[in-house]
Amino acid sequence: MSTNGTSSKSYIEQPCDRCGSPKVVSETWDQAHETISGTSTLKVSQITCTNEACQAEFDKNRAEEVMRINEKKMKKEEQDKIRKDNIAQTIRERKESKLLTN
Ligand SMILES: [Zn+2]
């Protein structure tokens, strides 16, 4: 991501890779980033296609992608919780067996 500054400019200059329509910056905002030296702000721009149907399709796909990522994240968290519970259980059992043998 070191060429972000230049590539994002050329990215908007290129026609949409889905339908060939020109792109437009629909929104720009400052995004705070936590770094070692503190918080730095990064300018983020939302680039959309001027073809509404194409953009709607893209938004739909992205929403589905976000849903998939969230689902994966939730499943991972669930598994992590189960794993932690199992570890805690194992530790408990070990302690109990130690108490029994001693
Ligand atoms: Zn497009």
Structure description:
With 102 residues, the protein is an alpha+beta fold. The protein contains two helices and two strands, in the order αββα. It folds into two domains: 50 residues, no CATH class; 47 residues. A two-stranded antiparallel ribbon has the order 1-2. A hairpin with a 2-residue loop joins β1 and β2. It is elongated. The chain binds zinc ion (ZN). Zinc ion (ZN) binds next to loops.
Provide a compact summary of the structure.
The protein has helices at residues 4-13, 52-101, and strands at 23-35, 38-49. With 102 residues, the chain is an alpha+beta fold.
Topology of this protein?
Elements: H1 4-13, E1 23-35, E2 38-49, H2 52-101
Bound molecules: zinc ion.
Primary descriptors:
single chain, about 100 residues, alpha+beta, 2 domains, 2 helices, 2 strands, binds zinc ion
Helix content: 55-70%
Count of alpha/pi helices: 2
In what range is the share of β-strand residues?
Answer: 15-25%
Q: How many domains?
A: 2
What's the number of extended β-strand segments? 2
Distance between the termini: 58 Å
Structural class: alpha+beta
As a whole number of angstroms, the C-alpha radius of gyration is 24 Å
What is the average of the pLDDT values?
89
Q: H/E series, N to C?
A: HEEH
- Low-confidence stretches are none
Biggest sheet layout: 2 strands, antiparallel
Categorize the overall geometry: elongated
Associated small molecules = zinc ion
The side-by-side strand order for the widest beta sheet comes to 1-2
